[in-house]
Amino acid sequence: MSIPKTQKAIIFETNGGPLQYKDIPVPTPKANEILINVKYSGVCHTDLHAWKGDWPLDTKLPLVGGHEGAGVVVALGENVKGWEIGDLAGIKWLNGSCMSCEYCQKANESNCASADLSGYTHDGSFQQFATADAIQAARIPKGTDLAQVSPILCAGITVYKALKTANLSAGEWVAISGAGGGLGSLAVQYATAMGYRVLAIDGGDEKGAFVKSLGAEVFVDFTKSKDIVKDIVAATNGGPHGVINVSVSEAAVSQSVQYVRSCGTVVLVGLPAGAKVIAPVFDSVVKSISIKGSYVGNRADTAEAIDFFSRGLIKCPIKIVGLSELASIYELMEQGKILGRYVVDTSK
Ligand code: 8ID
Ligand code: ZN
Ligand code: ZN
């Protein structure tokens, strides 16, 4: 394939400013990078946070967002080993890290102080050609449907790692709070595949039917329940053994601390701007609960999460639209109206 000089992208110059669909230069891979012709990219709620600039971490500006990009390798930096032109590759949130600090040495690369983040500190996958560190780029098996696999590259890896962090045994209950969204709809499926019983929490009948179709045994509607803590404790005969918080709601996180079972684990994943966890010290001690943060996953988590997908255990519930329509996806996302994941086709 001949690589063009310019390409279509969605770019913004200020946080919350216009999302411009326009021609920009094709980036040149650095010595350690591969150049990927991105075919499809999932749209994660993190991309909305990055555009709005509502987290206490600055984005690069101007910025091309996106970190669930799936495509084909079209060029290799001069030091790259182990990749060939034509391989399928994925752009993940963790684009690259130092590989030498204490955290990188122990494979906690996402905790590296100099982590480079796709669609945040490094131009991401809302463009037709994007660069990725050859060490961190995800390896996608030949023949994979690139639109279907794209949400695995952030949502899938993140919820898979979060479920491992909850440290559950087969047959135990896990509550997924925010189950109808992008991360949640995959969390329900990974949890089911890992042998857990799923209680899903989200709002509205449509989301209820949706999460049940994905494997949830029980649905609790946060817009209708009069006492959500009581309802969840009753449905799970004493509270879920683990909770994966993927909603963008501060209140939902604090409720999870109340309904989790004694000796259970609350995992924090969703990142509502400015939110705090309110956990009563007395209850936390007497119930001996754990509250843990979980942040994407490492290279092994990536390979494992993709393997669950490749074995047909995870079906990404996607809607495909053109890249030029990104702004309308952000509107739906802000209103909590998305079932599963939107994926953009970079050719439109
Ligand atoms: O590594 C990480 N920790 C990581 C990785 C990727 C994404 C964290 N995230 C963060 C995102 O930045 C975002 O804050 O996870 C959050 C969820 O991302 P998403 O799944 O991409 O968002 P979504 O598709 O909008 O889904 C959110 C769901 O939460 C529901 C909504 O109805 C929607 O279905 N929800 C809300 I908002 N309030 C709720 C409540 N009180 C609720 N569900 C239950 N109870
Ligand atoms: Zn993401
Ligand atoms: Zn490091």
From TrEMBL:
Residues 16-344 form the Enoyl reductase (ER) domain. Belongs to the zinc-containing alcohol dehydrogenase family. Gene3D superfamilies: Medium-chain alcohol dehydrogenases, catalytic domain, NAD(P)-binding Rossmann-like Domain. Its cofactor is Zn(2+). PANTHER family: ALCOHOL DEHYDROGENASE 1-RELATED. Keywords: Metal-binding, NAD, Oxidoreductase, Zinc. The lineage of its organism: Eukaryota, Fungi, Dikarya, Ascomycota, Saccharomycotina. This is alcohol dehydrogenase. Its EC number is 1.1.1.1. SUPFAM superfamilies: GroES-like (SSF50129), NAD(P)-binding Rossmann-fold domains (SSF51735). SMART domains: PKS_ER.
